[in-house]
Design goal:
Its EC number is 2.7.13.3. It is an enzyme of class 2 (transferase). It is found in: Membrane. Pfam families: 2CSK_N, HATPase_c, HisKA. The protein has 513 residues and is an alpha+beta fold. Helix content is 48%, strand content 19%. It has a five-stranded antiparallel β-sheet with strand order 4-3-7-6-5. A five-stranded mixed β-sheet has the order 9-11-12-14-13. Helix 5 runs antiparallel to helix 6, helix 6 runs parallel beside helix 10 and helix 7 packs parallel to helix 8. It starts with 6 loop residues before the first helix and ends in a 19-residue tail after the last strand.
Length: 513
């Protein structure tokens, strides 16, 4: 398959695409406020509601008990009156002394009214206008007597009336008399108010006592968090050691473990920054010293030809220094921010084809046969960052061209295997000793063969490749190139699911030699 080298296509491939910043539309989270306040609210407010419901229930029960007690007293008065009812000369009579009338008509808290009715409903004694028994009033089941209790209004006041059916008889007749005793509700209301006030007072004291206990309990429970806060606040700025999880309760220990994990990551980040600063200062010191020396030589030189040679040397040293600085910045960017960027589908074969186009001219100038073998784009799609993947392939291909002697070959191959997409970059250069396979990924490490064939290298190319592979979850493998000479670097990426039924094998090859 032919590959186009048109500049417009190359520029279109190189043009960066803006990515959506993660979390740009996310609204800031509202502050949670005080933990102590939330605990107290969640404990005290439901407690107050429950106590209020309990107070209502207690008040109703107390009123029912008071009604039963007053009704029993009312029934006793009715029975006492019924004992004075008899039949005399064929008529129902009530023998109620004057003193008894006084006791029935009034008491210390309210008034009491009574009425005794004969066999035919006629008033025998008492208040003849006392309200009659409603027809639908049921008989009370609480007492072994034919008694009915009901509420009514008498003389503009609410009253509670007990109506007792009392059998009366003599030798000439027998029948049922009705004895009614009514009582105003003043005494009941006074008792109800007293019960209500006592209930509310006791419930209020209970809520106050429980709230005090809860406040002290919450304060006691939160003390370990306060100690943890004090430990963290009083630490030295450089102290990133783990916090003792025994300082807090078991439920809070995952938070402390997460804090310790964050501190460990900060330690790694700081160590990486220190290492980068040390490496950068060490590596940049030599070319800057050379530049200074060359500039001083140029100032002392009077021969134009010699000065021109020195200037060319300064330009070459500057290019080398810029290349080193770019590599250092790339390495720092990957180490400190590459893992946080969003991944998107990227056709690895497209990236390899683009790198081949960019490096075709240096390969031709060196007399190297640069070839590409790639399956179709759908089969070689991986989740990644296009710019970082371009940097990875470019570093591998550039290294291969630099360390391959003139007349050699460099092959870029992208293929799909079971579950992985594999990028192979192999050359016909001097290769590496297997004992150095693990060392070459260390920053600034240079193998002996690399020092001989390319003394001006930086030793950062494979370190950058390793970090980019780590960001993408890929694995690296080194081996001898096919034929036993040279080096083959393989990068295995997790493959995406194929969008079509079968994997294509549209293989292409271009030659830049």
């Amino acid at each position: 398959m032919a590959v186009s080298f048109a500049p417009s296509a190359l520029l279109a491939r190189l043009w960066p695409r803006a990515g959506r910043r993660a979390g740009a539309d996310d609204a800031p989270a509202a502050p949670l406020g005080s933990l102590r306040g939330q605990l107290l609210r969640w404990l005290i407010v439901p407690l107050v509601i429950l106590v209020a419901a309990n107070a209502v229930s207690l008040y109703r029960d107390a009123l029912d008990a008071a009604d039963i007690a007053y009704d029993r007293s009312l029934l006793a008065s009715t029975r006492a009156l019924a004992e004075r009812v008899s039949v005399r000369d064929g008529k129902v009579v009530a023998d109620v002394p004057y003193v008894a009338l006084d006791s029935f008509e009034t008491d210390t808290l309210g008034r009491i009214y009574y009425r005794v009715s004969g066999l035919h409903g006629e008033t025998v004694s008492g208040y003849d206008d006392l309200p009659p028994v409603p027809k639908d009033t049921p008989r009370s089941e609480l007492y072994p007597a034919l008694v009915r209790f009901y509420h009514a209004d008498y003389n503009g006041e609410p009253v509670r009336i007990a109506a007792l059916l009392q059998p009366v008889y003599d030798d000439s007749m027998r029948g049922i008399a009705l004895i009614q005793v009514g009582e105003t509700l003043d005494a009941r209301r006074a008792l109800s108010r007293r019960i209500l006030l006592n209930t509310l007072l006791r419930q209020a004291l209970l809520v106050l006592a429980v709230a005090t206990l809860v406040w002290f309990a919450v304060r006691l429970v939160l003390q370990p968090l306060m100690r943890l806060k004090h430990v963290v606040e009083t630490r030295a700025v450089t102290d990133l050691s783990d916090v003792d999880e025994a300082l807090v309760h078991r439920e809070v220990r995952p938070l402390v473990a997460a804090m310790n994990g964050t501190m460990a990551r900060m330690q790694n980040l700081i160590a990486s920054q220190r290492r980068f600063i040390a490496d950068a200062s060490h590596q940049l010191r030599t070319p800057l010293t050379v530049l200074k020396t060359q500039a001083e030589l140029a100032l002392r030189e009077n021969d134009p030809a010699a000065m021109q040679a020195i200037v060319r040397s300064i330009a070459a040293t500057t290019d080398s220094t810029v290349h080193l600085a770019n590599r250092l910045l790339t390495l720092a960017r990957i180490e400190h921010g590459g893992a946080n960027a969003l991944l998107s589908p990227v056709a690895l074969s497209d990236v390899a084809r683009q790198v081949g186009l960019e490096l075709a001219l240096p390969a031709v100038q060196k007399g190297i046969d640069l070839a590409l073998e790639a399956e179709d784009d759908g089969a070689t799609t991986v989740d990644g960052q296009a710019l970082l993947l371009h940097e990875l392939v470019s570093n591998l291909a550039d290294n291969a061209i630099r360390y391959t002697p003139p007349g050699g070959t460099v092959l870029l191959r992208v293929r799909r295997l079971i579950g992985v997409v594999v990028l192979d970059v192999q050359d016909s250069g001097p290769g590496l000793d297997p004992s150095e396979y693990d060392k070459v990924f260390m920053p600034f490490y240079r193998a002996q063969a690399a020092l001989e064939s390319n003394p001006g290298g930086t030793g950062l190319g494979l370190a950058i490749v390793r970090d980019i592979a780590t960001v993408h979850g890929a694995t690296l493998a080194l081996d001898r190139a096919e034929g036993g000479r040279g080096l083959k670097v393989s990068v295995m990426f997790p493959a995406r699911e194929l969008p079509t039924e079968a994997e294509g094998s549209d293989r292409g090859r271009f030659n830049a030699g």
